[in-house]
């Protein structure tokens, strides 16, 4: 019996050794930036992409699969997105737009590979200094980046996730290390959140309806939907809506950098914030923790609801209304 037991254990160990690597890679685990169980397969490094939000670039591709999206003013009243991908790999991402220094800084907070097409003068210096691993369409237009024929430049630059991985491999970037996990509420904690009811909120980057972002909480789905310019934010290819679990709005000092109206944003000093979760609002403060914008309440870090997060960066919280 002892001999049979030993043989059985040995056969089991040998079977585990022979288990295909793909099967091992498909073992479910919790995604660090969403807190949701997922089948992450290598590479596990986060990828951050600057995505165009000009009306001529809508609807975009890839936003619904981003773990975290930052929305910030780029120039004038026009906003851009920094979409951070880790738990999902969209087939196509874009339109991709040019880099800004604050998008680079936010990407570094997740040790992400940064992807953009073009750059401001300040961002160009940072990228060329090697401060962050990056792939840029200026060097790879027509190769890694492709121009869509259904849109006009500069609103037609796209990149596939496969080409992002190819570009990273060609450049010798390490793509195996996952980002440090965020903190998430348990299901019980998320179900007992307290605050003022706020199922509809509006972030007015401009008096122009085109750049007013609106969010609606669907109590049945327990998700927020997003719209701008009166149209729901969906995927270009399949009309899949962007569904969110956390909507955060932070107030940060803005400056105008040049004659083009490019913005500078202070993302280090901290300030006031609103946190929308489960159809309620909580007033909070935000802090920059090693490049990450995180909410705090009464001096303690707030946890996120498991799922996807959208962070709006505004010059003043007076631009935000809710009911």
TrEMBL record:
Ranges of residues in domain DUF3048: 33-173, 202-311
Biased composition range(s): Basic and acidic residues: 8-26
A matching Pfam family: DUF3048
SUPFAM superfamilies: YerB-like
Domain of life: Bacteria
Chain positions covered by the region annotation Disordered: 1-35
InterPro entries: DUF3048_C (IPR035328), DUF3048_N (IPR021416), YerB-like_sf (IPR023158)
Protein name per UniProt: DUF3048 domain-containing protein
Annotated organism of origin: Siminovitchia fortis
């Amino acid at each position: 019996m002892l001999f049979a037991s030993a043989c059985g254990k040995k056969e089991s160990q040998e079977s585990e050794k022979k288990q295909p690597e793909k099967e091992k890679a498909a073992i479910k685990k919790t995604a660090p930036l969403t807190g949701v169980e997922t089948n992450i397969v290598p590479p596990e490094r986060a990828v951050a992409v600057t995505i165009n939000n000009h009306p001529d670039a809508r609807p975009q591709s890839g936003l619904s699969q981003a773990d975290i999206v930052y929305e910030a003013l780029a120039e004038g009243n026009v906003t851009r997105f920094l979409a951070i991908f880790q738990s999902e790999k969209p087939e196509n991402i874009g339109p991709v737009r040019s880099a800004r220094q604050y998008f680079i800084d936010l990407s570094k907070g997740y040790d992400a590979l940064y992807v953009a097409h073009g750059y401001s003068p300040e961002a160009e210096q940072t990228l060329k200094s090697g401060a962050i691993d990056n792939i840029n369409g200026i060097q790879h237009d027509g190769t890694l980046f492709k121009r869509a024929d259904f849109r006009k430049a500069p609103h037609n630059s796209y990149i596939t996730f496969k080409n992002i991985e190819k570009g990273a491999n060609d450049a010798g970037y390490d793509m195996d290390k996952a980002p440090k996990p965020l903190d998430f509420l348990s299901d019980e904690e998320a179900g007992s959140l307290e605050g003022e009811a706020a199922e509809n909120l509006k972030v007015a980057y401009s008096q122009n309806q085109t750049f007013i972002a609106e969010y609606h909480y669907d109590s049945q789905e327990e998700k927020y939907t997003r719209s701008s310019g009166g149209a729901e934010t969906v995927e270009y290819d399949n009309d899949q809506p962007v569904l969110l679990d956390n909507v955060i709005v932070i107030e940060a000092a803005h400056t105008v950098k040049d004659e083009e109206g490019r913005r500078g944003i202070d993302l280090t000093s901290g300030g006031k914030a609103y946190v929308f979760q489960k159809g309620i609002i909580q007033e909070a403060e935000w802090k920059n923790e090693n490049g990450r914008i995180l909410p705090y309440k009464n001096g303690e870090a707030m946890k996120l609801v498991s799922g996807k997060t959208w962070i709006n960066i505004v010059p003043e919280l007076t631009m935000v209304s809710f009911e």
